[in-house]
Amino acid sequence: MFEFLLLLAGSYLLGSIPFGLVVAKLMGGPDPRQVGSANIGAANVYRVLGRNAGAFTLFGDILKGAAPVFLARFGLQGLGGWHETAVAAVGLAAVCGHIWPVYLRFQGGKAVATSFGVLLVLCPLAAAALAALYGLVFRVWGISSVASLATAWMMPAMVGLMSEVKIYLLASAVLSGLILWRHQDNVIRLCRGEEPALAEGEPQSNTPEDSQPAEQS
Hints:
This protein is an all-alpha fold and about 220 residues long. It has helices spanning about 1-15, 20-25, 40-50, 50-75, 85-100, 110-120, 125-140, 145-160, 165-180, 185-190. The two termini are about 30 Å apart.
């Protein structure tokens, strides 16, 4: 039990690492919270600093979801029938860290990439199907938030179809709800026709957009 609690706390702290901000500083770019859509996810980092910075951010955000869940799934011992519940809890802790990071005064991202990292270990087949769905929707619409919303909606269904572990289905439903909740401003902008497409190298102002963050991984 002590190992589980330690891993749970470590998962939250790892999830709290703002890789978008770290990448921006290492690459000598502006603070992504102050330009573009004013958030630290891969979409805004890509928009502000380019393809490589966006890819590094995406990889980091996925890894901080996958790594602690991998350790929990294959490393935790002695929990008996509670093992799958413990693994799901560790994954949720990482996502909560991304959304409410202790290092940034609990102002974080929308957890799409980190949730994908969690599912990559919990249910790889569902993660692969959701990645394909994201790519398809993004190819058609060219808007990151639309692809994220479609993926979030389908997440519980994919996990339910491809995993027999009921607690993983419950965890995917919670992740889906969190992602959809974090995208409520995007939904409003989509209804108004104001949601921007994702484009690399667009001119960026020195202050955030007047609206809330548009896209976050």
